[in-house]
C-alpha cells in the first residue's frame, strides 16, 4: 500500500517510462500528461510518523461474493483513531515529476528516524490500524482498459463508501533484518474470492496489477540471492 488515493500513471508502460526517465525527462512527462502532477503531489507526505498517513492499494481487485457475483474492491489502511490525513505538503507545493523529496541537508534527524519512531511506538504505546474495503459493482462491458480499473482515478467515496474489514493491532516489531529479508510478498497470494484483473497489453489499466503478479516473485528471488546485508 502507498500514501495517496491513486497512482500518478495509468499503466505499466507509463510506469516503466517514468522509472527509466531522468529528472528533466520526468518534468517533460508531466507536461505531456503521462505523469499526473496532482496525483503525485497527493502521495507526498511531510511525515513525523508512519502512523499519520492513510495507505491505499491503488489498484483494484476482482471480488466474488458467496453467490459468485463479481465486483471490484480496493483497500486502504487508516490510523486506529480514524484521525484525518496528516503531513500533506503546504499549498502551492510542486513535485515537478519527482517521486520523492530530496533530503534536507541540515535535517538533524537520523536517516531511519521514521522506522525508529514506529518501533518506539510499538514498544511503548498502542499501534492500531483499521483495514477498510471499497466495493464497486461490475460495470457493463467491463474490459482490461475500463475506467473502473484505472489506478490513477480514485472512486467516489459517497457512491462507494469505505467499509471496515478488521482492526490490526501491532505489539511487537520485527527487529531482525534476516527475518524481514525472508518475507515473501506475492500479489497472487489471496483468498479464492479475490483475484487480480488480467491485461492483454502493457498500455491497459489492468496491466499494473498484472505486471506486479508476474514481476514480484522473480524480483524476490534475485533479492534473496543478493549479497548481504540488504537494505530494507
UniProtKB/TrEMBL annotation:
Taxonomy of the source species: Bacteria, Pseudomonadati, Pseudomonadota, Alphaproteobacteria, Rhodobacterales
At the top level, the lineage of the source is: Bacteria
Q: Which organism is it from?
A: Rhodovulum viride
Write down what this protein is called: Catalase
* InterPro entries assigned to the protein according to its UniProt record, in alphabetical order: Catalase_sf
Location of the region described as Disordered in the Swiss-Prot/TrEMBL record: 83-105
Amino acid at each position: 500500500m502507498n500514501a495517496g488515493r491513486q497512482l500518478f500513471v495509468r499503466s505499466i508502460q507509463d510506469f516503466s517510462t517514468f522509472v527509466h526517465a531522468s529528472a528533466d525527462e520526468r518534468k517533460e512527462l508531466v507536461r505531456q500528461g503521462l505523469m499526473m502532477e496532482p496525483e503525485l503531489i497527493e502521495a507526498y507526505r511531510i511525515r513525523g510518523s508512519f502512523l499519520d498517513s492513510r495507505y491505499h492499494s491503488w489498484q483494484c481487485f476482482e471480488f466474488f461474493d458467496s453467490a459468485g457475483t463479481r465486483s471490484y474492491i480496493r483497500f486502504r489502511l487508516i490510523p486506529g483513531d480514524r484521525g484525518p490525513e496528516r503531513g500533506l505538503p503546504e499549498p502551492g507545493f510542486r513535485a515537478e515529476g519527482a517521486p520523492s523529496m530530496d533530503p534536507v541537508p541540515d535535517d538533524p534527524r537520523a536517516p531511519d528516524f521514521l522506522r525508529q519512531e514506529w518501533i518506539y511506538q510499538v514498544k511503548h504505546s498502542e499501534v492500531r490500524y483499521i483495514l477498510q474495503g471499497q466495493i464497486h459493482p461490475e460495470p457493463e462491458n467491463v474490459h482490461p482498459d475500463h475506467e473502473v480499473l484505472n489506478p490513477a482515478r480514485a472512486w467516489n467515496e459517497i457512491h462507494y463508501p469505505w467499509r471496515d474489514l478488521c482492526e490490526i493491532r501491532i505489539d511487537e516489531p520485527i527487529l531482525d533484518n534476516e527475518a524481514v529479508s525472508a518475507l515473501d510478498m506475492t500479489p497472487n497470494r489471496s483468498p479464492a474470492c479475490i483475484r487480480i484483473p488480467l491485461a492483454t497489453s502493457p498500455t491497459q489499466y489492468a496491466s499494473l496489477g498484472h505486471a506486479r503478479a508476474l514481476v514480484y516473485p522473480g524480483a524476490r528471488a534475485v533479492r534473496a540471492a543478493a549479497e548481504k546485508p540488504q537494505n530494507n
